[in-house]
């Protein structure tokens, strides 16, 4: 009797696991289907309504999935993939979701045949190792110093984006910005900190062609006293502060009892003396521009303007860091600690200009700027937002190439090469893992197949011809031209991808598919809402008598 109870329980558990696998696979496929049409240069755009009621028009996989509100946990983890890909390499956000969805789709047949998920995952991990080895073989090095090669690569990577219709503009901006802020970290390697040292300022108006990379920093601020302070200074001496230039307020409430009228004026004089002393310590170094992150009182403004010094107050910390990197100044916390070496002399021009309705301060023409601002102009905010998203991707691609200067073919050629290599190798794999391994090889074909679908060509003919070209591990550079749907040599058409992006896409997609396959139960920790007015439910306590009277098996 006891053995039959165990068998019954076990079969219930297994059924529940299979159901969960199917639910997870369906949810992942649904997410992949949402953005499948946004792969490639001839892709569709999506119009999204965001939480605040605004409209986003984009074909960037990450931007679309970010706006989705999905309850299913497996679908949520798929969306997380695209975010990881965007933060890590900045490109391939759509490919990673399509590939992960396809990996799960081909695994469904094995789940139905009662294959254990661990077996499938083992085969997938083996396929991932062989896929990385295959792209290592076909990768070719690139010369980072050759601007033409870099431009071609960045252009082909953002050729699938909305802004590809504007030609070289975005690619030029991305390469200029990343080469400006790149720093050597030894052993011939360079690092580019896009997040902290490249600021993208979007100013509606003028034409998109007026966008440019400034050799310095632009901030949305005017000088404190526009009439009294200079708005244009050539070769300015810049002091950056992280402290207020006003009288210190007490931390807590302070009461002062004054008995004589003179004491009141003495108290005011002390305040004025303190501010005068602060200003004198700053003016000793003969600056032309003082920038502080905190407040600047009217009196301090008077002393500074009297000495012909311009001042900007309440600046963001991140902007202050960028000015420091661009002009060579050091941010100081106390004016009495100022030294000559803290003064920034690297900027060529400080100027305040009016663009549209607002004033912008430019600290430009820097000698060796390690921070810069990309000024984007354009007719509407929606367009500027999309251009900014594309520019971020382009800068990430340029950064990847600077970090790891290797190229692989685009247009689905890499995936077809990997697929052909895995199919050949699958014949030498013994045991039950052979079939999931072969299925993983077929799953890689989903990228060129989706490209062909989005071009509007005959998918079956194109894929058969492409498989024929790649059959014996030859023609590694033959892929699909996303604009025409024709089968072409990617090297001749200059359709390339960064090695980092491809390797990260494969790793993320396969590891995520393995993780989702190994989930056999979803336990909800969310409390169900009680009916209004109902008190807290009391837990039911079983007694020994209840346990004895319980039927283990139905009659």
TrEMBL record:
GO terms for cellular component: chaperonin-containing T-complex. The keyword Chaperone applies. InterPro entries: Chap_CCT_gamma, Chaperone_TCP-1, Chaperonin_TCP-1_CS, Cpn60/GroEL/TCP-1, GroEL-like_apical_dom_sf, GROEL-like_equatorial_sf, TCP-1-like_intermed_sf, TCP-1_chaperonin. Keywords: ATP-binding, Chaperone, Cytoplasm, Nucleotide-binding. PROSITE patterns: TCP1_1 (PS00750), TCP1_2 (PS00751), TCP1_3 (PS00995). It comes from the Eukaryota. GO terms for molecular function: ATP binding; ATP hydrolysis activity; ATP-dependent protein folding chaperone; unfolded protein binding. Molecular chaperone; assists the folding of proteins upon ATP hydrolysis. Known to play a role, in vitro, in the folding of actin and tubulin. Belongs to the TCP-1 chaperonin family. This is T-complex protein 1 subunit gamma. It holds the Pfam family Cpn60_TCP1. The keyword ATP-binding applies. It is found in: Cytoplasm. Residues 528-555 are annotated as: Disordered. Its main location: cytoplasm.
């Amino acid at each position: 009797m006891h053995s039959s109870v165990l068998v019954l329980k076990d079969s219930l558990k297994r059924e529940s696991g299979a159901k969960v696998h199917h639910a997870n696979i369906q949810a992942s496929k649904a997410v992949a289907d949402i953005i499948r049409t946004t792969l490639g240069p001839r892709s569709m755009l999506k119009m999204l309504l965001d939480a605040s009621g605004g409209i986003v028009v984009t074909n960037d996989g990450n931007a679309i999935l970010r706006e989705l509100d999905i309850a299913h946990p497996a679908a949520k983890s798929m969306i997380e993939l695209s975010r990881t890909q965007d933060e890590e390499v900045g490109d391939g956000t759509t490919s990673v979701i399509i590939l992960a969805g396809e990996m799960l789709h081909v695994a469904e047949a094995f789940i139905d045949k009662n294959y254990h998920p661990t077996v499938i995952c083992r085969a997938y991990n083996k396929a991932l190792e062989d896929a990385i080895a295959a792209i290592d073989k076909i990768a070719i090095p690139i010369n980072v110093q050759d601007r033409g090669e870099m431009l071609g690569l960045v252009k082909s990577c953002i050729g699938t984006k909305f802004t590809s219709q504007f030609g070289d503009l975005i690619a030029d901006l991305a390469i200029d910005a990343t080469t400006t802020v790149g720093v050597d970290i030894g052993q011939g390697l360079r690092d580019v900190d896009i997040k902290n040292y490249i600021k993208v300022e979007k100013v509606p108006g003028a034409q998109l062609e007026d966008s440019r990379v400034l050799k310095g920093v632009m901030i949305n601020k005017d000088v404190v006293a526009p009439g009294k302070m200079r708005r244009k200074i050539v070769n300015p001496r810049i002091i950056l502060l992280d402290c207020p230039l006003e009288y210190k307020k007490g931390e807590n409430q302070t009461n002062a009892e004054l008995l004589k009228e003179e004491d009141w004026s003495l108290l005011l004089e002390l305040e004025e003396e303190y501010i005068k002393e602060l200003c004198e310590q700053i003016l000793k170094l003969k600056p032309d521009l003082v920038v502080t992150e905190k407040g600047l009182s009217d009196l301090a403004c008077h002393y500074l303007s009297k000495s012909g010094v311009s001042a900007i107050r309440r600046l963001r910390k991140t902007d202050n860091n960028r000015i420091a990197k661009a002009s060579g100044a050091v941010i100081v916390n106390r004016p009495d600690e100022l030294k000559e070496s803290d003064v920034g002399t690297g900027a060529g021009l400080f100027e305040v200009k009016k663009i549209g309705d607002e004033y912008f301060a430019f600290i430009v023409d820097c000698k060796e700027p390690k921070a810069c601002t990309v000024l984007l102009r354009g007719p509407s905010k929606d367009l500027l937002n999309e251009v900014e998203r594309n520019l971020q991707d382009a800068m990430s691609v340029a950064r990847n190439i600077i970090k790891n200067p290797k190229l692989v073919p685009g247009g689905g050629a890499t995936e077809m090469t990997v697929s052909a290599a895995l199919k050949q190798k699958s014949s030498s794999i013994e045991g039950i893992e052979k079939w999931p391994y072969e299925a993983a090889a077929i799953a890689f074909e989903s990228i060129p197949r989706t490209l062909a679908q989005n071009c509007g060509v005959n998918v079956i003919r194109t894929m058969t011809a492409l498989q024929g070209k790649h059959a014996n591990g030859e023609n590694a550079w033959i892929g699909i031209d996303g604009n025409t749907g024709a089968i072409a040599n990617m090297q001749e058409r200059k359709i390339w991808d960064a090695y980092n992006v491809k390797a990260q896409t494969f790793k993320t997609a396969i590891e995520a598919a393995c993780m989702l396959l190994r989930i056999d139960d979803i336990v909800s920790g969310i409390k169900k809402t009680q009916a209004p007015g109902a008190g807290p439910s009391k837990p039911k306590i079983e007694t020994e008598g209840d346990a004895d009277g319980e039927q283990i098996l139905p009659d």
